Amino acid sequence: MKKQLLTALFVVTFFACASVSASAVENDLVKVGLRYGSSALLSANLENAQGSGYSFGYFDEDRNFEPLLETDETTISMTAAGDIYMSQSGSYSRDMPSGTFRYLGPWRVQVDGFGDREEAEDAADDLDGWVAWISGEYVVRTGCYDSRSEAEDAAEDIDGGYAEKVSDTAVTVTVTGTTDILFEYDYRGILPLGVQPEGWGEEPITWFKGYRYRGGFEYPRITGGNLSVINVVDLEDYVKGVIPHEMSGQWPLAALEAQAVCARTYACRTTKHQSTYGFDVCNTTDCQVYNGVNASTARSDEAVDNTAGECVYYDGQLAETVYHSSDGGATEDAANVWGSDVPYLQGKQDPYESAASIPDYQYTVTYTREELTWVLQNSGYSIGDVTNVYVSEYTPLGNVYKVTFEDSSGHSLTVKGETCRMAFYSTTYGKNVRSMRFTISGGTGDATVGGATGGSTSTSSGGSYSVNGNQTLDSLDGASVISGSGQLGTLDGGSVSIITSSGTQTVGLGSVSNVRNASGTFVITGTGNGHNVGMSQYGAKAMAEQGYDYEDILNFYYTDITIK
Fold first, then answer.
1. What is the H or E stretch that residue 206 is in?
2. Structure confidence by residue, pLDDT tens digits, 510-519
3. What is the DSSP pairing of strand 193-197 with strand 54-59?
């Protein structure tokens, strides 16, 4: 459940919280998108890691698996039917490979009229063909021909046979690395092919693309396109596949238990991808990272078992249990980050997180004027050559609320909420702002902390300090500031050190008339990692290390919730 663009590890994406009273999960089964959209595959293979063989069929609307045929083959490939070329190495493609290859054409000889699977299997043996399930009926097919005429010629020798071309929703199942067809499926896009690994006395676990998965698989095919791959898996097994990727599987048990409840709640609540792709959650940072059982540990599995079935609720509805890596000193109201107030996502000072050892807790990133101009303009912002950037408002908790950019023509652009960090993201320059808790030096501007006196002092003139855009202070004594570690504090002296693009300077009463960027660079210094809303994962770790249980952790980071 993580932001794709700006967050590093352990960061989630937030979606507007609709009222949800019923679980998105059916029969305790979650549909997880493994490949879809641009990552959909022409051919997807499976290999038994534990157990042996597969059943072919489909998952009905209640996610019950309806078997149609079985095989004891241990390596199988599902391929979008049509012109299929198999190279000498055993890979399948649409394009004719160089060198030696084998070809599966799109035309078949088909025989209909079978009352049940047994009849179809017997006929398939006699015809040296295979059983197919087409539009809800068993048929038998044989031959893979390049043209209708070839199929018609072959059909003349088969009683009841006729030429039939595979449709653009059909899926062909072969023994991996061969042209031996095991089964063909085409429900005209109504229900996708389902494959259920068989355990024969042990729990089946299956290899797919280097990862091992529990549960079954589904292969929707968009008309004429490639195959999506969906893992249809028990809810608790899904959560076991999430936890060690969202937290270290060796972290304290209470932290892992809190993460398990969050992950389970997210899966039960979301239907984010259902209408577009037919699954509940994806397996990437756009939802929650899930890669089957590969990284599971005894402790992470124990955390899931200890909290089995438990979710987070607010006012009787499943909550949006967003989380992030670290908050840098304080979490934040959802309203100040995403624009919509969520009563259980309220920010607070975090007294626990600083006790944990957090990699890269503090960060610094530098941008030139030219870099910021390029980043903003290529992100679609209407601004000229950037000459200045500064934090123009902080929240009462010390997180950034507004950032202002100014250009050479005097135009200013002010962004707020999570855009304050997203606006800096650049794959070209390999730079980003990692949290909502940061300061900017090198720019000239005035920041407001929560609309009250205090904040980042940018300029000073005469015998006073300019702050908050239109206010002055005769003394720094009592001014609220954000420290380099991300903590909100109060000054008690007559001077303060500030960071500029040329280094650290000490500002005393009337000593600096204008702290302006002479070198054309802006230095952003911050703490934390993520959007600062909901649970801090490192904060959860710190609380667990201090003896708090998972319910204490969840009740601290989410306001007025119920765990049940």
1. strand 205-208
2. 333 334 444 6
3. antiparallel
Instruction: From 425, 350, 320, 344, select the one nearest 381 (Cα to Cα).
Output: 425
Name residues whose C-beta falls within 8 Å of residue 518's C-beta, 6 or more positions apart in sequence: 501, 502
Question: Which residues have CB under 8 Å from 178's CB, separation 6+?
Answer: 86, 90
pLDDT tens digits, residue range 250-296? 999 999 999 999 999 999 997 778 888 999 999 998 899 999 999 99
Q: What amino acid is encoded at 48 in this protein? A: N
Q: What is the mean pLDDT of the chain?
A: 87
> What is the tens place of the pLDDT at every residue in 476-514?
555 656 555 555 566 655 555 554 444 444 544 333 333
**Residue 57 neighbours by CB distance under 10 Å:** 22
Nearest Cα residue to 47 out of 211, 215, 216, 208: 208
Containing 318, the helix (H) or strand (E) segment is: strand 317-318
Distance CA 24, CA 271 (A): 6
Distances in Å between the alpha carbon of 459 and those of 63, 455, 470, 500, 505? 64, 12, 12, 12, 12
For CA atoms 28, 34, 36, 41, the dihedral sign is negative
What pLDDT is recorded for position 271? 77
Q: Which helix (H) or strand (E) holds 121?
A: helix 117-127
Cα 17 to the center of its chain, rounded Å: 17
pTM (2 decimals)? 0.82
